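Technical appendix A lists one of the benchmark inputs used to test multi-chain prediction within the project. The record comprises two sequence entries:
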Amino acid sequence: MNQVWTLFKRELGGYFATPVAYVFIVIFLMLSGAFTFFVGRWYEQGQADLANFFVFHPWLYLFLVPAIAMRLWAEERKSGTVELLLTLPVTTTQAVLGKFLAAWAFIGIALVLTFPIWITVNYLGSPDNGAILAAYIGSLLMSGAFLAVGACISGATKSQVLAFIVSVVLCLLFVLAGFPLVTGFLSGWAPGWLIELVSSLSFYTHFQAISRGVLDLRDLVYFLSVIVIWLLANVLVVDMKKAA
Amino acid sequence: MIEIKDLTKAFGPFVAVDRISFGVRPGEVLGFLGPNGAGKSTTMKMITGFLTPTAGTVRVFGHDVVREPLKAKQLIGYLPEGAPAYGDMTPWQFLHFIAEVRGLRGEQRKQRVARVIDEVHLHEVLHQPIDTLSKGYKRRVGLAQAIVHEPQVLILDEPTDGLDPNQKQEVRDLIQRMGKDRIIIVSTHILEEVDAVCSRAVIIARGKVVADATPAELETRSIYHGAVTLQLDAVAEAAEALRALPGVAEVRIDSVAGQVTAFPRDGADLLAEAERLSGERGWVVKQIYRERGRLDDVFRRITTQEAA
């Protein structure tokens, strides 16, 4: 755990040593604001909740989280520091965890910085703050799922661009799994249970309830298992690269 | 003690390292030589645990690198090729980070970091991002992180590559200082370096060990070993006379430099003979010397032999 903490500190510090962190946070805040107000018409709706703020998070994360995740391993492979990292007395699992948790914490910071909208909604009305907290937790969990996918893909290549594109496509599939686009493609020939299974894998479906403030244990377990599975895959990918 | 046994690494059908075996004891500075692509870096990456061997074992003080990676890694300091470092950190931050991962805490960490900063002279650039440093400084940062935990085993992949002569000398001094009671493996293709710092040289070519000896022993394998060179005006006459000596196998003339070199047959000592000859004939000899042998010549012959 000590080693994870040491790596975590270095990684998180790394974000703020370059403009990357600030640019990311500013863009995240601007986009989440723009979606909420202009696409979600939050103000005109006159409802004291943040459903129209959270509902766009899957789409926001779809591009922004792979942008954070793409550098996790690919950059280290490109610059050669991965050789340094993996010859230090740390296990692959510790390295994967340190990197993932730092990136997740960074996204968490960006998410926390959306607090003005929470203040605004409290100023304008009296929302259910428990529901808002639940939605924040759910959103953070979902971002972790996006991040775990991106981290694993980043571990497989030294090209950040490639890591970004593949991660976006994979994440898009996960988001769209519950949409007619994907279920319709399957419905002609696949058995019912498969369609059910695929659509139950959708980030979007699991987040819908959460964005309204309903924190169902099944959705939590779902996102946590997605994170765990992709991080295990990440460890495997990094170890396989050593043996390749 | 490092024991390498039948170490093999294959990338697909290409065998980069082919059943290499050797051992290194504390106090030895082992020069690891070979042409580019011979498998030097690959071998070092397997010793340090970055690459998993296809076959064979590496044991570092009894710890198998694959089975007990953490124990082995803790004993090793490693400077990878090109001295990679986190460019957004300053040397000060970077060295503290490495020291922390290496398990150094509190006062001990401060002391060790301060000491390596002294040792490789990083004071001037301590708080500049590593990305902005010159090649020489980056290399020193890489060296500093490799020795911060005072490892029993130091593995340096081309530590002087791209450095200027003064910096090279500094690195060699450092290696010699550290080499007294540890195991050091240095890869290089600068042969003078082997002479300067190594107590033993292992040469590999196409993934196989082709020589394992002290630099002095290797020099005796050179055709220049025991060769006597005279610098004088009467080049042609001297060449003629030397060629007639029974112990001379071959004579080469360098007319530009005005030199004659006689190569011995069966290890004959030619220096006394040549001196006697020049005294008899009354040549005005500006210079006369016997060579120990040339490593570059040995290197070239043994690394190209198999291919021929």
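Chain B has a mean pLDDT of 90. Chain B touches chain A at residues 11, 45, 48-52, 69-70, 73-74, 76, 78, 80-82, 84-89, 93, 97-98, 100-103, 129, 145 (CB under 8 Å). Comparable benchmark entries are summarised in Table A2.
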